[in-house]
Amino acid sequence: MDWFNLETLWFGLIAVLFIGYFVLEGFDFGVGVLTRWLSRDDTDRRVMINTIGPVWDGNEVWVITAGGAMFAAFPLWYAIVFSSFYLPLFLILLGLIVRGVAFEFRGKRSDTRWRWWWDQAIFWGSLLPAVLWGVAFANIVRGIPIGEDFLFEGNLLDLLHPYALFGGLATLSLFTLHGAMYLALKSEDGGDVQQRAHTLALWLGFVVAAGVIVFLGWTYLNAVSLGDTGVVPGIIPVSAMLAAVAAPLLIREKLHGWAFVATTATIALVTLTLFLNLYPRLLVSSIDPSFDITIHNAKASDLTLTIMSWAALVFLPIVLAYQSWSYWVFRHRVSRASVEAPTETPMQVLERRRAIADQRRPGTDAEGS
Amino acid sequence: MEALEFARIQFGSTTIYHFLFVPLSIGLAPLVAVFHTQYVRTGQERYRRLAKFWGKIFLIIFAMGVVTGIVQEFQFGMNWSDYSWFVGDIFGAPLALEGLLAFFLESTFLGLWIFGWDRLPPKLHAATMWLVVLGTHVSAYFILAANSWMQHPVGYTIDAETGQARLDDFLAVLSNPYLVGQFSHTILASWTTGAFLVLGISAYYLFRQREVEVFTSSARVAVTIAVLSSIGVAFVGHDQAQHLTDAQPMKLAAAEALWDTEEGAALSLFAVGDVDAGRNVIDIGLPQGLSILATNELDGEVQGLNDLQAAYEEEFGAGDYLPPVGVTYWSFRIMVGAGMLMIALALFGVVSSVRGRIADTTSRLNRWWLWSLPFAIALPFLANTAGWILTEMGRQPWVVYGVLRTSDGVSPSVSTWEVVLTLGGFTAIYLVLLAVTIGLIRKQVRTGPPEESDEEVDEDHRTIAPLGAY
To answer: Residue B359 has what pLDDT?
Structure first.
């Protein structure tokens, strides 16, 4: 195992963290974007927001941890990527800020103008990062003008070439489809939201499939012209394309669960392809390969990497366990009725409340019976 | 002004803003957990109402802390890429561990707490809040470990080949003597902040004799925490000042506007300095006070700014090694002054509480105390902010004390207009969100704790939005 070393392990772990991030926050970006297109009224929007309510914040931590891991494992990479993608990251931050507080603040007042503002925040705050993460990753793979001393010598326009913009559209459409499938699984079975998500996904699925094929093909052509195709086993991008093609077919059969598996696999495999295409580079220089940032010239000390490896080995499984458990706890679907005002009679309410009270305080007889 | 100045303004202002919410999250979470646990244990209605009431306020604050925290993590790389490259080997690990050990825990279990009212068994549900408490404290530990390394770098060597700092001893970084003081000081200050918010809002109700039973409970819990933690902060702070005598004598000298090295130095009460001349124009102080504070001896030697400057020039070459003396001096006094006021208010409250008169509005003194507490909510924020300004500005011109200058840390590839643009953007959105946040908390306070009759509606929303949040 000559190829195995700590920097390769951390290259892999950071890939895992970004895959986790795009798979998880991918659907909640998608749901955020779809609040505009799949809702007919405020209740619909509340249904949609509540499908991701308990989990979106935990999903976002994947990118915070990925950023921390970049910082710790490859300080040079973190420093150059974050200062080179300055304005895109600024816009991502603005998006994440307004979106995050919007979920919390939106329901605090019932007037329509208040909610309209937060709806804008949720839509744009989901759309912007969904596009810009794609733009950023496409740039990392294709190369940006990194010169001597690893200094970024370009400007904003260098980051906005057709391939990168296409990458942004690819992630946006893929996340939106992923979000639609999530809504199909998490909103009321047979309900309006599910129906609309299904109808949208019927055609969006084909757009995404075409987009993924073109994006991966374009990525390959770029790599060939750079003369470095990384270490991509052909099976990975081909599987990504197959999963992307399978998604709309599964949607047509109303197999939403399997379609969600397909969009998950597409996101994971596309991200994996990009990382494998990079290896052992971390950021490609479009000026000269000698200015490429690689796992070798950016790596932290073996001591730091060893400590981090043990921490990841112990805690990543624990995190996965409790996050999965939280998804299990919130596995139920969200219906319109569940977010609307109660329709029960007072007697039913009383009865149910008594049942809950009994269940909640077993063995306490302090309260008068 | 250059990118460096704007980057510094941006770091300072976004960090101060972020730290309005962080100590409240750290300080309120345990109170919510205590009330929730009391409810599960006793089944008493007032505890349920308190857990929900403070829980709602906690969630507003927590959300602001989360979204402003992401800016902090990204900002190191965006505006301070040379700094990040230099320190990453040591500084990055605590940040990554903070995400892995703390943020996942907080966010996942807070989601479970918010939406878990009828999905989880009662005891497990209360436990989720305790895990959030654990997460907020673990998070504070790691980020302060990172900051302490900037204040007092330990456990590292400089890579001869690349010139980067390289980790040498991770345990030394995690048990940095500076960190011990800073962590206890920050945590106690956070508990004080949480306690004073709860105390201020409870007093608002008690002063008006509304919901007396419920808010007497919360005021009594809060006043106990307030007195213990505000006094604790002062003791730890004293220890930290002594540690500064060795670790960062320049900061201590600036905080006291002590220009010349003295034995039996006075504790300055009020000074007006002339920085260019290197002396004070006006200086009123307690004789020998500073020497006692810094060294525990009447005639202990405390180094002065002019002598330190000369020593630093010898060690590091020509340059200005003085931090902004005026800012450091006054931020120290604001912090200590606000702290003393809080201790006085908390002590009064404990006496009232022990005598069972905490809600008494017939006594003039107690009535005055209750009236003042809502205003006193500002005190911990003032002290926290002044404390961080003292810590960070007092370290200048270094970003890593004695190792890397702030001016050498800024991103070379980022232009001035880019920093100005992001500074403007963050400022605008932060001001709007601050107004919204304060408005929402006021609304929550006016609405009061959920009534039992509200609960019928609330129970129906429980599955989805138990707190009416989403």
So the answer is: 85
Q: Could you give the ipTM of this predicted complex?
A: 0.91
pLDDT digits (tens, 9 = 90+) for B445-455: 988 888 764 44
Distance between A203 CA and the closest CA of chain B, angstroms: 30
CB contact under 8 A, B92 and A68: yes
DSSP for residue B100:
I
Return the sign of the alpha-carbon dihedral for residues B411, B412, B418, B423.
positive
Helices and strands (H, E) in chain A, number of each type: 14, 2
Counted residue by residue, chain A has a size of 369
Which pLDDT score, from 0 to 100, does residue B96 have?
94
User: Phi and psi at residue A143, in whole multiples of 5°?
Assistant: 110, 140
For A66, the closest chain B residue by CA position comes to B96
| A·B CB contacts under 8 A | 267
CB contact under 8 A, B460 and A50: no
* pLDDT(B465) > 80: no
CA distances from B41 to A366, B105, B225 (A): 10, 24, 21
Cβ contacts of B236 within 8 Å, gap of 6 or more = B181, B184, B185, B188
- Structure tokens belonging to residue A288: 């000269």
* B-chain residues near A326 (CB < 8 A): 108-109, 111-112
**CA–CA distance from A109 to each of A56, B19, B36, B252 (Å)?**
21, 26, 25, 48
Which residue in chain A is spatially nearest to B168 when comparing CA positions? A303
Classify the C-alpha dihedral B352-B355-B359-B360 as positive or negative: negative
Could you tell me what percent of chain B has a pLDDT over 70? 96
Question: What are the tens digits of pLDDT across the range B273-283?
Answer: 888 877 888 88
**A73: which residues sit within 8 A by CB, 6+ positions away?**
A7, A10, A13, A14, A299, A300, A304, A305, A308, B92, B96
Which residues of A are less than 8 Å from B64 in CB distance? 101
Question: Most B CBs within 10 Å: which of A35, A47, A103, A104, as the mutation test of the B interface?
Answer: A104
Q: Which chain A residue's Cα is nearest to B107?
A: A58
Residue ranges of E strands in B94-232: 156-158, 165-167
> Would the CB atoms of A57 and B111 count as touching at under 8 Å?
yes
Higher pLDDT: B2 or B429? It is B429
Distance from CA of B45 to the nearest CA of A (A): 10
The reply to whether B68 touches chain A by the CB within 8 Å rule is yes
Q: Smallest Cβ distance to A90: which of B68, B101, B425?
A: B425
Express each pLDDT in B286-312 by its tens digit.
888 888 888 888 888 888 999 999 999
Residue-level pLDDT at B458: 41
Residues of A in contact with B463 (CB under 8 A): 332, 338
Distance CA B223, CA B342 (A): 11
Output the pLDDT for position B360: 85
Residue found by looking up tokens 């009460």 in the block? B269
Mean pLDDT, rounded, of chain B? 90
Does residue A152 sit in helix, strand or coil? strand
Q: Do A55 and B104 touch (CB under 8 A)?
A: no
Substitution target from A28, A105, A152 for chain B, most B beta carbons within 10 A: A105
**Low-confidence residues in chain A, pLDDT < 50:** 363-369
Q: Do B108 and A326 touch (CB under 8 A)?
A: yes
The pLDDT value given to residue A107 = 87
How far is residue B163's CA from residue B201's CA, in Å, rounded to a whole number? 52
Contact between A79 and B88 using a beta-carbon 8 Å cutoff: yes
Domain parsing of chain B, residue ranges: 3-461
pLDDT single digits (tens) B141-178: 999 999 999 999 999 999 988 899 999 999 999 999 99
Residue A268 is predicted with a pLDDT of 97
What is the DSSP-derived secondary structure letter of residue B156?
Answer: E
Q: What is the pLDDT of residue A364?
A: 45
In this predicted structure, what is the pLDDT of residue A369? 34
